[in-house]
Amino acid sequence: MADLEERADDVASGSRQTGAGVVVRPRRGDDLADCVRVLGDVHTADGYPADWPDRPAAWLTPDGLLAAWIAESQGRLAGHVGLARSAPGDLAPALWSHRTGGPPALSAVIGRLYVAPGARGQHIGARLLARAVLHARALGLHPVLDVLATDTAAVALYRHLGWTHLGSGDQQWASGRTVTVHCFAAPRG
């Protein structure tokens, strides 16, 4: 177990992934203002998140957060992803558990994934996703996620990257709204 924790620490704090002018690195506290600004740009362009949070910085730092990363392109924040422990009521971990027989606690939920509108087309979303998957696996956890059924571009990305569709279902959000989500599990790696 100590070896897994050491590998996870290396992934979370360690080497910056670079390529094609894009750097993926662990998110720092002083990144949050830029993360919120870019999230606002994404919300305006795409409607994500579907319900704008009252406290966006807190929304980006949910309970159970294990780690978060940002992507920078040409010195500007270009994307974000987080990895969190599964929480009661999370549909993706429950479906993964039902399919595999493993307890939901052995999954980790990837979320808060977005790419700045002006930075798209550089595979930033896939790179952020890969970083979160690597960290989850270093912790001995299986990565899962859910996505709104209406977010067809994200669904297409996950399918293209080989994620397994676990099922779909309705989730009730804190706002009281019920939404349909598709749930996916990372390919075995």
What is the percent of helical residues? 25-40%
Shape: globular
SSE order: HEEHHEEHEHEHEE
Main beta sheet strand tally, sense and closure: 8 strands, mixed
Major sheet: arrangement of strands: 1-2-3-4-5-6-8-7
Number of strands: 8
The first-level CATH class is given as Alpha Beta
- Write the CATH homologous superfamily: Gcn5-related N-acetyltransferase (GNAT)
Distance between the termini: 19 Å
Low-confidence stretches: 1-15
Chain-averaged pLDDT: 89
Q: What radius of gyration results from the CA coordinates? A: 16 Å
Number of helices: 6
Please give the domain count: 1
Question: In the CATH scheme, what's the topology name?
Answer: Aminopeptidase
CATH architecture: 3-Layer(aba) Sandwich
Strand content: 25-35%
Based on helices, strands and strand pairing, what is the structural class?
alpha+beta
Task: Describe the protein.
The structure is a single chain. 34% of the residues lie in helices and 32% in strands. It has 189 residues and is α+β, with helices and mostly antiparallel strands. It has one domain: Gcn5-related N-acetyltransferase (GNAT) (Aminopeptidase). Strands 1-2-3-4-5-6-8-7 form an 8-stranded mixed sheet, with helices on both faces. Strand 7 and strand 8 (178-185) form a beta hairpin. Helix 1 (2-13) packs antiparallel against helix 5 (124-138). It is globular. Mean pLDDT is 89; it is low at 1-15.
